[in-house]
Write a structure and sequence with these properties.
By secondary structure, the protein is mostly helical. The protein is about 65% helix and about 10% strand. The two termini are about 30 Å apart.
Length: about 230
């Protein structure tokens, strides 16, 4: 592809994002998966931009949630942020803007369906956000996140009572390990005032623990802790 065609292609993606890059090389780098970089040599991957974008996304979503949903306590705000700041949600946003068609992938990864993989799409979106932040600053990054996530946050805010940490964890472990989490339960205390403790194992490793006055509460707390632990590893 010629330099002119590359510029035109990136310009189309910029219009889908709703942001015009001053330095289009930042956007091109955000699309460069490590598999492509390994093949062409001498090109930086999008991993550093992904690191930056992940941090930017977290605090921008937290601010939007705080400002738009002032009636929610801290715990609910955390749940609200988790509902959109996760690999599944980010991959959905990436698919909505058609990000996959612009990715620079190695031949093997491309042939293996890399353009549709949630992990690659979510990472690429974070890298693009990191590029927007570097190119246009805080306000440009905030505008992009607000445009793509505000409606999702509003919908999620109306469903907070139905957010199920066990379900979210199960979806994540199925994607990452092709297995389901296992919960180990113990109980103590008299029948009228029992305390339940839960430990959740993912791929045989204990990743979360919870305690509550019911099995459900203990398991939900353990699932939330395990989800945070797994998300930090992605």
């Amino acid at each position: 592809m010629s330099t002119t065609n590359i510029a035109e292609s990136l310009g189309t993606l910029s219009r889908r994002l709703g942001y015009d890059f001053i330095d289009q090389s930042l956007l091109r780098r955000a699309l460069a998966h490590r598999s492509w970089c390994a093949e062409v040599g001498g090109q930086p991957s999008n991993e550093r931009l992904e690191f930056l974008g992940d941090a930017v996304l977290g605090w921008v979503v937290a601010e939007i949630a705080y400002r738009r949903h002032g009636d929610l306590p801290e715990g609910k705000l955390t749940d609200l942020r988790k509902s959109v700041v996760n690999a599944t949600a980010l991959a959905e946003v990436a698919e909505e803007i058609g990000l996959g068609e612009w990715l620079l992938l190695g031949k093997g990864e491309d042939a293996a369906g890399g353009r549709q993989k949630s992990s690659i799409l979510s990472d690429a979106f974070e890298a693009v956000l990191g590029a927007v932040y570097l190119d246009g600053g805080v306000e440009a990054a905030k505008a992009l996140v607000a445009r793509l996530f505000s409606e999702r946050l509003d919908v999620a805010a109306g469903q907070l009572d139905r957010l199920d940490h066990k379900t979210v964890l199960q979806e994540l472990t199925a994607r990452l390990y092709d297995t389901a989490p296992v919960y180990l339960l113990t109980e103590s205390g008299p029948d009228h005032s029992k305390t339940f403790k839960a430990t959740v194992l993912v791929d045989g490793i204990a990743l979360g623990a919870g305690e509550g006055k019911s099995k459900k509460l203990a398991e939900q707390q353990a699932a939330s802790e395990a989800f945070d632990a797994l998300s930090a590893l992605e």
